Amino acid sequence: MPTRRTVLAGTAAAAALSTLPTPVHAAEAERPPYRWRTAVIGGTGFVTGLLFHPTTPGLAYARTDIGGAYRWDRDTDRWTPLTDHLGWDDWNLLGVEALAVDPAHPGRLYLALGTYTQPWAGNGALLRSEDRGRTWHRSDLPVPLGANEDGRGTGERLLVDPRDSATLWLGTRHDGLLKSTDRGDSWQRQTGFPGIPSGTGQGVTLLVAAGRTLYAGWGDGDGTSAHPNLYRTTDGTTWEPVPGQPVGASARVPLRAAHDPGAHALYVTYADAPGPNGQSTGSVHKLDTVTGAWSDVTPAVPGGADTFGYGGVAVAARRPGTVVVSTNNRWSAVDTLYRSTDGGRSWVSLKDTAVLDVSETPYLNWGADKPKFGWWIQAVAVDPYDSAHLLYGTGATVYGTYDLVHWTPRVRGLEETSVRQLISPPAGPAHLISANGDIGVLYHERLTASPKSGMATNPVFGTATGLALAAAKPSYAVRTGWGDHGNGAFSTDGGRTWTPFPAQPALAKDAPGPIAVSADGSVLLWTLVHWDGTKYPAHRSADGGRTWAEVPSFPRGATPVADPVDPAVFHAYDTDTGTLYGSTDHGRTFAPRFAGLPSGDSQFQLAAAPGRTGDLWVSAKENGLYRSTDAGAGFTKADGVRASHTVGFGKAAPGARYPAVYQVGALTGSGVAVLRSDDGGRTWVRINDDAHQWGWTGQTITGDPRRYGRVYLGTNGRGIQYGEPA
């Protein structure tokens, strides 16, 4: 980084930041080869769709709400990620709304991508592959898709027409039914489709072929015969309501459908809401596709305290009459799979005899003695070549069985964690501690196996909001988040085990935010931020969390950063005003130090270089990267760094005196990438490649203080990626 700087006292105007032109572009030929792998946790996210290929043994696909799509290979018993090539600008495409295969062409795979339908997210895209997802052809869609919105477990909304492999059908949430006759390069809205988008966000919920007849579910009806929710076409042009279809609250939204050709039956699952939350009743119905007669084959009728809907449905292709359905949102009695071998006349609950072994992914115990069968079960698949081989997705994993009794997580290679913060300790058995969405804090003694201790307990967190290590006393760590018995905890063994704070600020119950700990572990600073963004005063404790006092001078909502050398010094970056604050009295009071930093955006980070006092770095989204060597009295802007989203540090390069600096950012004239500097930020080299981009990666990055070149990267849906020089 530049050494010349502008020093400004107090809150004096600081609009002029000094820059020192330095070469920052590393030539492509100089880029060192890196090997990228995924740290093993095992699933952790909502698997919204599972699909066995109907004519190719041992081939299956999975889709997720924010973590892309995967291909399963029976020979390796692993999932291969298929969308890691999607980069920063395409972050919205990591949500997979629907997938489809072509039975007549085993290599063909289609993905309908788009995470949100809001205007700021942009339209979706279609990826098509001829080689099972190894390479892709992309077509941008004229409409948005909502893979991480309500109803994301319905479907599939994408279908290859059985009459013509070049014809695709796509059900949308707000734009009706689309048809393509050129394999997705162009689309036309079907004016003959009766459904009228109501704006509630469901639209077409499913598409399925039964022979040459196509069926489409409509999720915006009211459960009455005046507004049908299941339509069909026999000619690919004219759509009509399916006669005699069920009505009522328990059949308001068709969730999924499966065709049993041997039994001439179409099974449809229903609920009163699209899910995965908010369902209180549901049903399962069977249509005889020859006679047109409907039968109510609901395994268990919701009622009383046992409220739920139905979700997934799958048939055994070579065993007519064998069908599996799932309950969903059944919190009192816990969700289950029901299986029938007589066309739905009788059912067996597979949960009742299930033996679950989660030793490969211990976090699935959720801090209890044993795991639950699952929740948010809307994806169910039966192997067409083995009726006892079942898969089902949950809000955290994929379970599988080969004998209908013994179930294990089937998630090798599938990682969907949203990672909030990463720390690589300077000593101890673990090279990595992570703070995550949904699964709290994990202690990674090995990167190639799910943490054997599972989620950090005492208390169990859902989503973690803060994680910090005392720089001069790394055996002492603290964490915050949404917990079951308190929202803060400390560790005296480097994060292996945890103890709740003896007390917590009253506001922390509803507003746990990030936390910092002084270099010697004597002082805690806890920022309190509600999940809706409301900012409250920070609180300080100097007795290990026994008592807490408000710090009025601390900028509300800022993330506190402790100086790694001087235990009396803390820093905070007020992103609302672009002002850096500092404390030299152990966090009791804060005063503004520099008022010229970028402001007005939530995507900022303040970081302190390890082993140095007052050496601060600020990554400021589209405004670049800044450094101060005098505790924030002045800052220098890095010339040539166009954007910086997150910054971290690792072991210095051989012969170098300054730690390796890592960032997710963009150099002038280049796109967002993972970058490393071995000379204090004067020059940068890209260390990822076009095949390893993972969408949005701007939340956290850190190097390993014990291994030069190793970097840990947090993604929003593809877990923890780590790279090392090859």
Automatic annotation (TrEMBL):
The keyword Transport does not apply. Residues 1-26 form the signal peptide. The keyword Hydrolase applies. Keywords: Carbohydrate metabolism, Glycosidase, Hydrolase, Polysaccharide degradation, Signal. Residues 138-157 are annotated as: Disordered. InterPro entries: TAT_signal, WD40/YVTN_repeat-like_dom_sf, Xyloglucanase_GH74. Belongs to the glycosyl hydrolase 74 family. This is 1,4-beta-glucanase.
